[in-house]
Each structure stands twice: as C-alpha cells, then as structure tokens.
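Good morning,

Attaching, inline, the backbone tokens for the sequence recovery test we're adding to the shared suite. The designed sequence is right after.
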C-alpha cells in the first residue's frame, strides 16, 4: 500500500502518561491512567508521521514491557530504510498489535501526506468525511438516567452502557429506570465485557426482548462459538465480539463467525489495515478505541470512515481523559467530521 521511495531519517519515541477524568470501569477491572508511547517518523523530505502505542493487555494487546522493547528496536533500525521498505518490514515481520498500530499509523500518515489525501481516502477513495458516533454513558448505576439525558441533549442517538459490573438485579432496575425516560428513537448499545455465563446471558436476552437495544457486546465469559451462535439466534439484535475477537482471528474462525457484529480496535488488531481486512467477513463492523490519546482516536476515526459501514462508532472516548497529548477529533451532535 505504501510505495514511497524516500528514506526515513528520524525515528523518535516518547512516553506519555495521562490522567483519566474518571475511572474507566469494565468487568475486567478499573483503569485510572492511560500510558504508552508516541513514535514520530520523519523522511528525508521533511514529511512526518506520528503513531500511538497504547498497550492494554486486558483488551488483547501485548504487555507494556514488550511494546516498549519493540518500539525501541524499530526506532533504531528504521532510519536509512525507505518508507516502502519500512512498510514491507511491518507486513512481513511486525511486532505486537499496539506497537504495530503505532508504526503503521506513522507510515500511513506519511503516505497520505505525500499524496495530499486524508488517511481515510488513502485507504478508501470513497470514504465519507463524516461518521456517526455513539455516546458512552458508563456503567449501569444510579446516575445512568442523568448521563443518558445529557448525551441525548448533546445529540447522540445511540447510547452505550456497560453491564456485568454491579449486582445483576440492580443493573436491571437501573436499566428499566433509564427506559422510563428514554426518548423514542434512542437506542442502547450494551456491553457485558464477558461477565456472564451462558445461562445468565440467555436470561438477559429474554429480559432485553422488546427494549430499544441496538446490540450487545461480549455476552459470555467463555466465547464458545456454538454457545454464541445459539445466543445470537435467540436475540433480535446484533451480538458482538470485542475482546474475544483476537482469539477468533488467531484460531482462523473469521470465515464463519457466530455473531452479527465485530467491534474493531486498531490498537488491539495491530492497526487500520488488519481491521479493514475484516470487511471480507461480511460482519457489521463498529470501530472504537482503547481509551486512546488524540493520535489513536484520529486513526480510529479514519478507519471508521474508510470502512463506511453507516453504523455509529465508539469514538466518544476523549472525555475520559483529564489531559491529552494534542487535539483529538471533535464530536458534535453525534457526528465526527474528519475533513472537508
């Protein structure tokens, strides 16, 4: 994809550590800071590209130690290589997913700038300039309805709620309380983060029947294909693979996936191009981030546009950061404009 013959003359890696504005909670734990590295590549003509490496092993990336070692090794060997050679190296012998995402992002940025194109249009000439975005309103708790009302006022039509963290009966009460005030036409995107066994997941699907649910991510702790296929047949809405997706990919099971939707995270899949390859599965594809800093969110937004799925993407994660390394994509009225 990148055939640039100009040589890379500089590769600089800098760490970052960002405070979160509030804890990021899931069934797998609580995150208080977002840490990683930025890599900046510069070619001989002064064109630069930056990529973000934000390892999050609980989401499916390599460890921070492994990611740091990989970036250090690549930053020492890239100067003197052409951009095209660096791309070939990445394709044939790439590092773990978070480090690969950073390197790919930097190279794609250089390639897009040389052609005078947005990254989304480099990947897909027909990519739209605006994508839909879902609003993330956190966990099911006493403040859920208030946060939902605020998200609706800000123009979001799809609201994401995390389940599987509190006591199940209380979570159902919080969800029913939310529905009492939810305006017509607003849909819920639910995420169980693999907190349930198959029986609990089936009970939840029965409970959710008739509710304005758009999808449910990771309903079971053991993502057995047969179990997921049975649950998808029971549900009237899409079930989605998220954290378990890398497992299905590594096992070569993408030709016959048991659910309708895939949640693709560039940081977990190793960049934008591996995620684009999943379009061949015929699944619904939704892009989101791993609470990324600004460069990672920009890359996720360009991937969302390149996929052009028409679905709302999980790009509204910048508000979880109390500080950032730069300006990220602006979300306005449930839309993100990338260019134009």
């Amino acid at each position: 994809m990148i055939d640039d013959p100009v040589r890379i003359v500089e590769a600089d890696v800098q760490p970052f550590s960002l405070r979160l504005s509030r804890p990021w909670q899931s069934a797998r734990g609580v995150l208080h800071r977002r840490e990683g590295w930025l890599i900046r590549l510069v070619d001989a003509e002064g064109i630069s590209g930056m990529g973000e490496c934000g390892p999050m092993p609980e989401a499916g990336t390599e460890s921070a130690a492994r990611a740091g070692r990989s970036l250090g090794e690549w930053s020492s060997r890239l100067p003197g290589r052409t951009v095209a050679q660096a791309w070939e190296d990445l394709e044939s012998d790439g590092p773990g997913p978070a480090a690969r995402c950073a390197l790919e992002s930097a190279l794609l940025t250089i390639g897009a700038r040389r052609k005078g194109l947005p990254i989304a249009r480099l990947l897909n000439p027909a990519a739209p300039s605006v994508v839909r975005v879902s609003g993330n309103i956190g966990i099911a708790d006493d403040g859920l309805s208030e946060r939902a009302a605020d998200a609706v006022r800000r123009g979001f039509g799809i609201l994401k709620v995390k389940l599987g963290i509190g006591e199940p009966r209380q979570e159902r009460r919080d969800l029913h309380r939310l529905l009492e005030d939810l305006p017509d036409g607003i849909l819920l995107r639910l995420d169980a983060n693999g907190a349930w066994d198959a029986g609990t997941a089936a009970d939840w699907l029965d409970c959710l029947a008739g509710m304005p649910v758009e999808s449910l991510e990771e309903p079971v702790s053991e993502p057995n294909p047969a179990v997921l296929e049975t649950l998808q047949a029971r549900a009237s809405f899409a079930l989605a693979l998220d954290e378990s997706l890398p497992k299905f990919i590594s096992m070569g099971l993408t030709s016959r996936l048991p659910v309708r939707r895939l949640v693709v995270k560039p940081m977990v899949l190793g960049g934008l191009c591996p995620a684009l390859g999943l379009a061949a599965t015929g699944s619904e594809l939704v892009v989101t981030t791993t609470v990324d800093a600004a460069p990672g969110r920009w890359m996720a937004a360009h991937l969302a546009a390149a996929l052009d799925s028409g679905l709302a993407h999980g790009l509204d994660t910048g508000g979880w950061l109390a500080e950032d390394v730069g300006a990220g994509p602006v979300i306005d009225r449930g839309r993100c404009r990338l260019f134009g």
